[in-house]
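Q: I'm writing a short methods note and want an example of a predicted protein-small molecule complex. Could you take the sequence and the SMILES for adenosine-5'-diphosphate and return the bound structure as tokens? Please keep the output block clean; save any remarks for afterwards.
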Amino acid sequence: MAHIFAVGGGKGGTGKSFIAANLGVMLARQGKKVVLVDLDLGAPNLHTMMGLTNLKTGLSNFLNKSVKNLSLTSAPTKTPNLYIISSLRCSLEVGNLFYAQKQKIIRAIWQLPTDYVVLDLGAGTTYNTLDFFLASHQGLSVFTPEPTSIQNTVQFIKAVYLRKLKHILKQHAFATAVKEVGYESDDGVVRSPLDIVDSVMRSDPARAKLLQKELGKLRFKLILNQYRKHMDVTLGNKIEKVCNRHFYSQFQFLGNIAYNERVYESIIARKVFVAKYPYTPTSTDLKNVANKMTGRNVQAPTLKETNAKV
Ligand SMILES: Nc1ncnc2c1ncn2[C@@H]1O[C@H](COP(=O)(O)OP(=O)(O)O)[C@@H](O)[C@H]1O
Ligand SMILES: [Mg+2]
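A: Understood, no commentary inside the block.
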């Protein structure tokens, strides 16, 4: 089975697709076979980040059953070892997949004949996004240093927890626990999933321990994107610490990725950033994050890179 990374996080525009595309290249350069899957079903643009147009195949061929095997829908990219499954030609309704369709996609992703899969997810906390995130081995949450982005990340983690609890507890037990917590906002949304675990702990400690154990299996990786020089360099580590203290799962901060004006230029030029601008702090940051994801040694940026215009 391939090792699956999902790139998510609550907010739109933080750089999920940019990071998925460029980490895909970095992982492929480690000599591994990598498949990028665009699962931002309503607004696919991973192919654009990769500088690809006119893709003939994609997820739509699998969903409309014109092919049986998802791997037949992948297209090569300009990077050796790196393939993409685009959702470019999927109809607009596909943004609201049926549960069975979603399960079918997840099973097919698990069976892809590759070393790594990188899932590019949409913004927000729809069930699609959360279920794809939960289907990965490692969930990467991308955020930027603005308070709104950090707030959205915490909301996203809570939404993942809530979804996971719903999966484990099943509908009735979940509804009972929510009722007991009596902690719903006006629109009926539970504010903190941790309160549900506390509630179960009062009535059924053994079950609550099991919930904690299951939530503890989740692996969250944090990436701070669009980092600028004057910012607090320890912000990511601080957030990692708070998350590890507050939630049951393991959180690991993978690093800052420098803001670079040339990201825009690479997209306009239809070239993947790390290929067009390899000698920049941003590219070194991306390489370091990819190395951390796969347990390799991390390199300090070279002097030349540090002095590059950002
Ligand atoms: N490190 C970065 N430096 C500069 N601009 C960036 C960086 N990361 C992302 N961007 C910009 O932010 C925009 C949104 O990125 P995108 O990957 O599409 O976000 P998301 O997928 O999270 O919605 C991109 O068009 C790009 O111009
Ligand atoms: Mg995106």
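A: Remarks, as requested: Residues 3-148+219-307 form a domain with the Rossmann fold fold (CATH 3.40.50.300). Residues 10 and 155 are 7 Å apart (CA to CA).
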